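Retry 2 of 3 after timeout on previous attempt. Resubmitting structure tokens to design endpoint.
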């Protein structure tokens, strides 16, 4: 199968490289939905322009058809080469399941962080280097170019939160919104901005430096807050990510528990869990109010494991409303509609 025939048939490979898992799909896209946004950057390129490229709008009846799906643990503690090889192997595995040719099938990858051409030593790189990824073994490395070389074809890349927001704006909970802010509350905390044109085309907004939507690194307490991998203290991520909530609960109670256990116990007899979650909802309100004051989106879609906390939808809107520069909150705060597959489906929209 040639690349042009794969494109005509609407087949795409999407990959979501997360801190906990790597997921890959082969999807069939209706012709109206294909190209809802272009890539933030192609392999080997620097940061792209602020708005991903033009394309036809996704029609009301468009839905992704998942032809094959596979996932593996990221195991980021094993380092860069492991993550690179695990991603390459997963791409070929899912393509084999679907009976498609990797070389001929357009491919997009969602991953945390963005890219720079500035090397850690201050010099300039000829290829894009990953920056700001909470999978820190990727930072300063040419993952885009290395994966493209390993797979044997050009790949479109974008931030995982952009892909999440793009999928939810195209098919999910933010469908029809003019301005969507997609929130990732998982291993890390990120955000993506999607603007929908008058023609109905959702497009990811990357910003001049590729950091648009990165509310997870707004600092809430730069002096006394928890240390963040980015080198600062008190970032939103150090309070609202799943691991951060679990660490704080273990420190206060002396008993390590999963986020799901903490959530369940917060509704019952566990005062530590209840107090901690109440505090985190209040911080969620303060942090998200800052986003609304700047962006004023129609819809905020929450995704990631922490988004399953009922408190974010019950008490969260009131917490946000207390801090915004308005006398009422018109922005809707909603749970994702596409499950944990939004990122990988958004990646498939990139090429």
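Retry 2 succeeded. Sequence:
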């Amino acid at each position: 199968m040639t690349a042009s025939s794969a494109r005509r048939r609407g087949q795409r490979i999407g990959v979501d490289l997360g801190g906990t898992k790597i997921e890959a799909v082969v999807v069939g896209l209706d012709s109206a939905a294909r190209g809802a946004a272009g890539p933030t950057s192609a392999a080997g390129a620097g940061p792209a322009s602020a708005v991903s490229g033009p394309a036809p709008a996704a029609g009301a009846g468009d839905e992704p058809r998942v032809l094959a799906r596979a996932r593996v643990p990221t195991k980021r503690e094993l380092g860069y080469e492991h993550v690179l090889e695990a991603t390459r192997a997963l791409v070929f595995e899912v393509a084999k399941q679907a009976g498609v040719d990797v070389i001929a099938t357009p491919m997009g990858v969602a991953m945390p962080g963005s890219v720079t051409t500035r090397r850690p030593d201050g010099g300039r790189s000829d290829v894009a280097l990953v920056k700001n990824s909470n999978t820190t073994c990727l930072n300063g490395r040419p993952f885009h170019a290395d994966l493209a070389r390993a797979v044997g074809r050009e790949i479109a890349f974008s931030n995982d939160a952009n892909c999440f927001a793009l999928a939810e704006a195209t098919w999910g909970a933010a469908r029809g919104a003019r301005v969507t802010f997609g929130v990732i509350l998982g291993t890390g905390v990120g955000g993506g901005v999607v603007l929908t044109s008058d023609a109905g085309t959702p497009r990811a907004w990357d910003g001049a430096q590729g950091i648009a939507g990165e509310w997870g690194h707004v600092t809430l307490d730069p002096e006394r807050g928890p240390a963040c991998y980015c080198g600062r203290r008190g970032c939103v991520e150090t309070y609202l990510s799943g691991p951060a909530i679990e660490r704080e609960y273990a420190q206060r109670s002396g008993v390590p528990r999963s986020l799901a256990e903490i959530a369940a116990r917060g509704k019952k007899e566990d005062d530590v869990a209840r107090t901690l979650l109440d505090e985190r909802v209040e911080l969620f309100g303060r942090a998200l109010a800052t986003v609304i004051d700047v962006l004023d989106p129609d819809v905020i879609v929450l995704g990631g494991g922490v988004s399953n906390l009922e408190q974010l939808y019950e008490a969260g809107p009131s917490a946000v409303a207390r801090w915004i520069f308005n006398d009422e909150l018109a922005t809707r705060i909603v749970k994702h509609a596409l499950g944990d597959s939004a990122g990988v489906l958004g990646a498939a929209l990139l090429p």
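Attempt log closed. The chain has eleven helices and 13 strands.
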